[in-house]
Design brief:
A: alpha/beta, 9 strands, globular, B: about 160 residues, alpha/beta, four-stranded parallel beta sheet, about 15% strand, binds iron/sulfur cluster
Chain lengths: ~325, ~160
């Protein structure tokens, strides 16, 4: 019997939720391990970087990498895994578009380090910042370099496929793994989830009016949410219109609005701009003051529209002007 | 170039992408041209059928491709050929500009103006003003990371 193909799973700047999403396949993991050997998976299995280095180039069928790329070690591992893998799959919103850690692109790396090591109430004001090289009498200690900007995986290495979501739903993960193992992969660069808007698969879509004309917006804690009716029609910022389907409207089923974690469908280049556009279009105000008043309930524009996609957006990050 | 003398070619020339509505501002800019009005040559005009057609992605894309400023010109309130396209443009503009400011892009770099077909002088004045403001601000220095390409070696593995 020929050897089973090998795969690897790796994490970069991630929360661990994406690895958990693989574990959550439950008995599906067994089906997976029937078909492939997992050669490297730091979260779940003991392993060393040298295990990967010792593999032949292209010796892995695929590596699923989750997390955004923030430091030099993650870059090195990404390049190493690229060399060893026939397919690189960006797994989850962080690898796909930058994800939540990508919101750090609103600040400079210096601001972030100072906030964490100097300015927080529990740190000494003159605390030592992490540095890449430290020498004491006997040891040379190294730390990865903290980069200025958070990157998506495909800004670091070529990516073959994307599995979207924060974390990806069981449905899209199982379907992607099935395609991978059976060799029935679509065109390179495809996002492995339905290429339609979430509203299309939402159980409340019948109650979404053709044309919205909202007078005001509400935050979820501000009103009692009708559990049947389209959330956007209730004035709640639900981002299903600019978000790819594939989660089976998980948040809406929990009576919470979609925050956009599956990224955009193929028709949209910049999810945040599209969401902003759709939301502004849904308002009824026609005069500047009334528009600004309606938008007052939306204080965090970047965090709302680019919650998962700032590094992958057209502008990628904020311009930080030196103070 | 003699010492201390400003080289004319080093003066920063802002690049402004101007999205003009077919029914009003575009006609006004045409009129400005045919009336031989003088204004700085820094704008690149893109004609759209309506200011309501300006997808915020167009604006970000202009910045991502080197624009230092973006101007949107539409019909005065009440005069939109499609009745409410300009109101939609206004709502998107208010929200987009607020967001851009939080991303460190100065608000002077994006501007929405209502300019009717007869207001050629307004086109001239707005572009003059915008060029002046953006010249003070300096170039928009985005430092964009391109998508990674496959290396030759990786292509071989992949094939
Ligand atoms: S995509 Fe979400 S679940 Fe996955 S690592 Fe990022 S934050 Fe965690
Ligand atoms: S806006 Fe939200 S609640 Fe309404 S149909 Fe779309 S996903 Fe469903
Ligand atoms: S509803 Fe939206 S935010 Fe929630 S899981 Fe689905 S795509 Fe993600």
């Amino acid at each position: 019997m020929p050897d089973k193909p090998k795969i690897a799973l790796y994490w970069c700047a991630s929360c661990g939720g994406c690895d958990e999403a693989v574990v959550d396949l439950a008995e599906g993991v067994l089906t997976l391990t029937d078909a492939v050997d997992i050669a490297f998976w730091p979260v779940a299995l003991d392993g060393k970087r040298s295990d990967v280095e010792n593999l032949a180039d292209g010796g892995l069928l695929a590596t699923l990498i989750n997390g955004a790329v923030r430091n030099s070690e993650q870059e090195e591992m990404a390049h190493l895994l690229r060399a060893k893998s026939q397919y690189i799959i960006a797994f989850g919103a962080c690898a796909h578009l930058g994800g939540i850690p990508g919101l750090a692109n609103l600040y400079s790396s210096q601001d972030i380090l100072s906030a964490a090591f100097n300015d927080s109430p529990t740190t000494e004001p003159d605390a030592v910042l992490p540095r890449t090289n430290t020498l004491d009498e006997m040891h040379a200690l190294g730390l990865p370099e903290f980069r200025e900007t958070v990157k998506t995986l495909d800004q670091v290495i070529a990516v073959d496929y994307y599995i979207p979501g924060c974390p990806p739903s069981r449905k899209v993960v199982s379907e992607a793994l099935r395609a991978l193992v059976s060799g029935e992969l679509p065109d390179r660069g495809t996002v492995l989830a339905p290429n339609i808007a979430l509203c299309e698969e939402c159980p409340r879509k019948e109650s979404k009016p053709e044309k919205l004309s909202l007078e005001s917006l509400h935050r979820t804690y501000g009103i009692e949410i009708d559990p049947e009716k389209c959330l956007l029609a209730q004035g709640i910022v639900c981002l299903g219109m600019g978000t790819r389907a594939g989660c089976d409207a998980a948040c809406i089923r929990g009576n919470m609005p979609c925050t956009g974690c599956f990224g955009p469908s193929d028709r949209v280049r910049d999810q945040g701009a599209k969401l902003l556009s759709a939301l502004a279009s849904s308002l009824s105000a026609t005069e500047t003051e009334a528009i600004d008043l309606a938008l007052a309930e939306l204080p965090d524009e970047v965090g709302t529209f680019y919650r998962y996609s700032l590094p992958g957006s057209l502008l990628q990050r904020a311009l930080v002007h030196s103070k | 170039m003699p010492n201390g003398q400003e080289d004319a070619t080093t003066v920063f020339e802002p690049r402004i992408v101007a999205f003009f509505c077919n029914w009003c501002t575009y006609l006004a800019s045409d009129l400005a041209g045919s009336s031989r009005m003088k204004y700085p040559p820094n704008s690149c005009v893109i004609r759209l059928m309506c200011s309501g057609r300006v997808d915020p992605q167009f604006i970000l894309n202009a910045f991502a491709h080197g624009a230092d400023g973006v101007l949107i010109g539409g019909c005065h309130p009440g005069d939109c050929h499609y009745r409410e396209g300009n109101y939609k443009a206004l709502r998107r503009f208010r929200l987009l500009r607020r967001m851009l400011v939080k991303m460190g892009i100065e608000e002077e770099r994006v501007r929405l103006e209502w300019i009717s077909a007869a207001e050629a002088d307004r086109v001239r004045d707005v572009i003059r003003e915008m060029v002046g403001k953006i010249r003070e601000l300096g170039p928009l220095k985005l430092d964009l990371v391109p998508k990674a390409e496959m290396t030759k070696a990786e292509e071989l593995i992949h094939a």
